[in-house]
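Methods: example folding runs. The two proteins below were folded one after another, and each record is reproduced exactly as written to the output file, sequence line first and structure-token line second.
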Amino acid sequence: MTFCLGMIVDEGIVGIADTRLTSGNEIISAKKVSLYQQGLGTFFIMTSGLRSLRDKTLTYFQEAIATRPEPCDRLFKAVNVFAEQIRQVSKEDKHALTDSGLSFDFYALVGGQLDHDREHLLYLVYPQGNWVEIGKGTPYQIIGSAAYGKPVLDRTLQYSDPLRFALKVGCLAFDSTRISAADVDFPVDVVIYGKNSYQITEHRYFKQDLAPISEWWQERLRNSVHELPAEWIDRVFMNVLPTA
């Protein structure tokens, strides 16, 4: 499985991707996020699903944008080029995968800003090649293992939050997933795009880098449960525990 998270806020975009890959009994580490430059603009692509589909689709995509007469000036145009490559790979490989008992499992998050985009954008791309834009109402999307990190984001993240807040919340969502999903783990790659900067900063965190945060969060959760008002459950336990 995979944990790839894209978050869009007023100040920019944060992307977080784990690096664990499982193939049968083998576990390896590999990047799941790639950076691209088009004209003055820049964007990233994060993927989940079969690694073979990712590698082939990105190879086709790199060739497609390299041979275009002009660079893409809007991010949706780059997403459309990417979607065309997904459909091409589907035509070539989907039947063989189905015969082998595998599905065409491939999702992507594309985020950034190109020359003629008025603002930074984040897209979710489906295996069929269609896509949706991630909006302000729910300013994040997880591909891969979504169940464990989603509650943290639903309860906290808002479009008006600063980039720093988004990164904190995203790392907590990753930590929640890592604790509960055996096939999600460090190292974790982070990409940050600042509004109208046309530059993406990339950083890799290892387990020891975020261990203090994980321990702080776990202890704070336990303390919060202890501090939770208990009047509403007192009547339930009135006859359960013996009195002194």
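Second run, written to the same file directly after the first:
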Amino acid sequence: MTKKWVFMIVGLVAVLTTVVLTGCDQGSTALGEVTQLNLSSQQQGIWVTGQGEVSGTPDIATLRLGIEAQATSVGDAQDRAQNAMSKVMDALEANGIAEKDIQTRQFSIHKVTRWDRDKEEEVTTGYRVTNIVTVKIRDIDNTGTVIDAVAQAGGDLTRIDSINFSIEDPEEYYEKARKEAMADARAKAEQLADLAGVRLDKPTYISETFYTPPMYSRAAYDIEEAAAGTPISPGELDISISLQVAYAIR
């Protein structure tokens, strides 16, 4: 092989090498795309989730109750519902319920129908009026008495759907749960750092999520048993806080 051919081959290899390296710098080659990894964008340090939970005694009871009346005409159904609801409102006021703690949640008028087989069509048999309110009882020990009074006032038209217990100012419970969650996160991070053979530094990120599940129950009421009094037990509420914490590594 002559020197001329040797120089030509060496020059061609040099050109191809330059093209390949240039393609790599641009993020692609003739063989396909090249993915570049930016390590600075990845989560760094030790990330843990801490849990804290405390129990608190409810101090608010919320009743969902109302009146449901039915008659052959709209006017009669409305009159029956209005008279019964007025008595219910009077009973609530007599038991110390403030007007601001009573809120209308539903008012409806519906046709009551049945299927007529002879005519093969639906026929109207009457009308049903429903008036539902929620009542906040701040004296939670008086809940059973309020239920009894409402049932007696509304009579057979009374509807008591549910009762919900809550804490009006749960901040002190959140503070306790938050301390537990932070201590839990720190303990987990220290264990991970020890296992990894590194030293833990200060937190660089904290995110909080809290949850207080309402105590909710359906209520079934027997008016004939009202004289004996309705026992109500609010129990306790569990308040949970979850913290996601990132710790730097020394």
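Comment on the second run: Strands lie at 28-29, 32-33, 46-56, 60-71, 102-116, 121-137, 158-166, 200-211, 215-218, 237-249.
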